[in-house]
Amino acid sequence: MFVKRLHQFLTDPIAKTSKNKIIFWLSLSLIFAAIYAFQGLQKGLAGEYVVQDDARQYVFFLQRFTDPELLPNDLIADYYQSVTPPGYLALFWLMARLGIPALLLSKLLPMVLGLITTAYLFGVCMQILPLPVAGFLSTLLMNQSLWMKDDLVSATPRAFLYPLFTAFLYYLLRRSQIACLVTIALQGLFYPLVVLVSLLVLFLRLLNWEKGLPRLSGNRKDYVFFTLALGVAFLSILPSVLTSAKYGPTVTGSVARTLPEFLPKGRSKFFHSNFFLFWLNGKDSGLLPWLKPQAILVGFALPILLRLRDRFPLINHFKNNLKVLPQVILASVMMFFTAHLLLFKLYCPSRYSEHTLRIVLAIAGGIALTLMLDAVLNSFITDKQNRKEKPWQLWITGAIAAALLLHPHFLKNFPITAYKTGSSQAIYEFFKAQPKDITIASLEGEANFIPTFSKRSILVGSEYSLPYHTKYYAQIRQRAIDLINAQYTLDTEEVKNFIQKYGIDFWLVADLAFTPEHITKNPWLMQYQPVAKEAIQRLEQGIYPAVAEVSQQCSVLHTNYLFVIPAECIVKALSKY
Question: What is the pLDDT of residue 220?
Fold first, then answer.
């Protein structure tokens, strides 16, 4: 009797799916999403100087919305603002008007986006298999996957893909055309890359398969809707295309293959000699670079289960909407190879497949688990003769369910947030007290925190040295080369000319900066040849650079391993030599 009631509650499609049951499973889904997000938020609020790794590229210039005088004439800030989608900018501008700082908002957004994603994904599952438990299992897999990688928690534009694409799928399956067009518009305003996948999904839905051959739809309304979607997508993407063109064109694939920045040890490593790593698992080049938790892999079993209709009777209760999953897969794969073909005109290929296929796998995984759960319960109910001899079925089912629910909590770093904590608070406070128009020169990794925590400009930094837009990176590369030359040269005039050329106000130097190992162990610096090797050779020969000669006598602050040196003092000191 207990098993029968359990079956009715969980997977019996004949039992009426009441509103209360839907609310229960949806609420449970949202609870798990909130728990994971709250654990992530705790890490984000653990200290004043905590910022998510990728968020550093966005948070720093968004602080202009609170104080327009920040970061004046800052190349890095201007570039990142130009390539940031307008919807994302508008959201942070609005929140700044309401008194919510960009750094705080970046930590709060993941919870909101995660809850929205959960709600829509649950709805998508209900449109495919109208059993709330399938929606719960799918959202559970989705949330575990999201919090085992730092896409959602980054609160960067790509974090908005998940709620907007799941919303698109939900309204598409519900045939709510106006809402669907709204989600396409929002995709273009927040994360334009996913719009291309959505449009391909709509195009594929114009095709009907008859006798193994594709046939175009004969419904005129389908073409009207698709045309409207094209128009909405074009208008929403256009602002991003126009603003980013200022720093274009993008680097071509043939040129990128010759640049150390795109090789395995480079800042934006892309090309690999390993076939599997490049095409399947590469961070920016692979089709599916992230497949965690392992439970999500059960999604690959769904096509096999669908062929075993006799063993999994729940298959008979699917809606026709299941075909949206292969449509998303095909659209994602098509865009993935198109992006490879047009490298890097459409940015990184994995952006078109990694996120959308993860959503598909979560949906397929939840449905597959529901099919298997139903089969186990059905077997236990119908096999009356051996019922008492097979209690292991329920025990195994319960163990699988428990493992699925509790698996992340056995992981050491779950949830994975990639939050970074600045280790030089005194330096951040020092620079924050300086005029807003200063520029700081540094080759140290700690400099990457200064724009966010001190709200002051740096000349160059590894975190901001993305080599995709040629006009931008040509300036960044030249700045890095000039800074390496100036920091490791004996020529005092070269140092003074460098300070004057870039308007440097302060120099941030590590106490071990003038050792060969400091350069050789820094992959970012080693990209810039031959200047990096020349600097190493000078240091190995015992030649002490001009900046090193005056660093200690001019230092106004020394904390941990860093010296802050006023450029004015450097110029005066070097003038005496």
Answer: 86
Of all residues in the chain, the percent with pLDDT exceeding 70 is 93
For residues 248 and 43, what is the distance between their CA atoms, to the nearest angstrom?
37
Which residue(s) pair with 210 in the sheet? Answer: 213
- Alpha carbon distance 100, 49 (integer Å): 17
CA atoms of 262 and 272, how far apart (whole Å):
9
Q: How does pLDDT run across 212-223, given as a tens digit for each residue?
A: 677 787 788 989
How far apart, in whole angstroms, are the C-alpha atoms of residue 493 and residue 509? 19
Is residue 40 within 8 Å of residue 147, measured between CB atoms? yes
What is the b/e burial string over 349-370, where b = at least 16 CB atoms within 10 angstroms of the residue's CB? bbbbbbbbbbbbbbbbbbbbbb
Angle at 455 between CA 506 and CA 42, to 5 degrees: 130
Q: d(Cα 285, Cα 376) in Å, to the nearest integer?
A: 40
pLDDT tens for each residue of 470-514 = 999 999 999 999 999 999 999 999 999 999 999 999 999 998 999
Q: How far is the CA of 323 from the CAs of 11, 79, 215, 329, 410, in angstroms?
A: 21, 41, 16, 10, 36
Global pTM reads 0.93
SS (H, E, C) 35-59: HHHHHHHHHHCCCCCEEECCCHHHH
Low-confidence ranges of the chain (pLDDT < 70): 1-4, 6-17, 210-212, 381, 383-398, 401, 405, 577
HSE value, Cβ hemisphere, 13 Å, CA-based, for 26: 19
Backbone phi, then psi, for 285, in 5-degree steps?
Answer: -105, -15
